[in-house]
Amino acid sequence: MPNTDDELKQLRQVLEIPSGQEWEAAVRLLLRLMGEDPRREGLRQTPSRVKRSLQFLTSGYRQDPAKILNRSFAKVKHDEMIIVKDIDFYSLCEHHLLPFFGKCHIAYVPDKRIIGLSKLPRLVDAFAHRLQVQERLTTQIAEALNEHVRPLGVACVIEASHGG
User: Fold this and answer.
1) Are residues 147 and 95 located together in one domain of the fold?
2) Residue 62 lies in a domain
3) End-to-end CA distance of the chain, in Å?
């Protein structure tokens, strides 16, 4: 996970290379290092496919949680906990770039604002589609809700399986 704004900016620039030549060259190099021939029929389109899949799997870097949570319903009297369970997600572990996936459960107690329920799965995707660890993913979701919705309380639980 990038530690500074400069690192995040640099990562965003790399992820958004229009031609994708650097992505594809890197994948061809990896294939050669594995002992494969990237010109082999079954692998010719692999560099392009990997580029597109990694750009999608890391698309959360290009999403702003504030924009996802910006529209809310103010002055709605609601004093009970709002819960959305079983939000499917998948992510890439930052340690080995292996997938992990599972379900996310989010609950919050509104103060003066509530958000549409569809915002919560979008928020989960925005953070899951980054290089992640499960613990940070949980924290980022809860912190974004606290910062942008300002509920009386929030909880986020993730149940996930790791591929490696």
Assistant:
1) yes
2) no
3) 19
The segment with the largest mean pLDDT, out of 49-53, 114-118, 152-156, is 152-156
> How many folded domains does the chain comprise?
2
Return the exposure string of 81-108: e unless at least 16 CB atoms fall within 10 Å of the residue's CB, then b.
ebebeebebebbbeeeeeebebebebbb
Shared domain check, 95 and 53: no
**From CA 131, how far away is CA 27, in angstroms rounded?**
18
Domain of residue 9 covers 5-57
Same domain, 51 and 90: no
Same domain for 72 and 46: no
CATH number for the domain spanning 158: value is 3.30.1130.10
Percentage, residues of the chain above pLDDT 90: 72
pTM confidence score: 0.83
CA distance 80 to 72: 17
The set of residues, in sequence order, having a beta carbon less than 8 Å from that of 119 and lying 6+ positions away, is 68, 69, 71
What is the token pair recorded at 37? 């021939």
Contacts of 40 (CB under 8 A, 6+ apart): none
Q: Which residues contact 112 (CB under 8 A, 6 or more apart)?
A: 74, 75, 150
